[in-house]
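Q: Could you fold this chain for me?
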Amino acid sequence: MGDITVRRVYDSPEPGDGVRVLVDRLWPRGVSKERAAIDEWLKEVAPSGELRTWYHKDAARYAEFDARYRRELEAGAATQAFAHLCELAAGGPVTLVTSVKSVEASHVPTLVGLLEHDASARDPQGGGP
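A: Sure. Below is the predicted structure, expressed as structure tokens.
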């Protein structure tokens, strides 16, 4: 598995970013496609609007948000989009790009954790070829 990096869309791209994937449902306000330098936009891996609204009413619900978000990733278009994200991460460095203000309290740590879990399942020894 390649490295997984997280950057806010407002930060400048770095040479080692690899594939830059926007993981938000909505395009970031005020950011041009050129400035964002996004290779892929996987909006389906972002939490549903309903889940986001529920969570933003009370940020203390993070544990329940995380559990509900994981269930969302196991259904419909989210499953296919997440599988594609896993393939990208298996192929080399990936940067998850987001516009959220507080990355630590968002869906992004869940995605990183699931990607890391997928990588360890693919290579249980943790070693390469």
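A (continued): The two ends are 11 Å apart (CA to CA).
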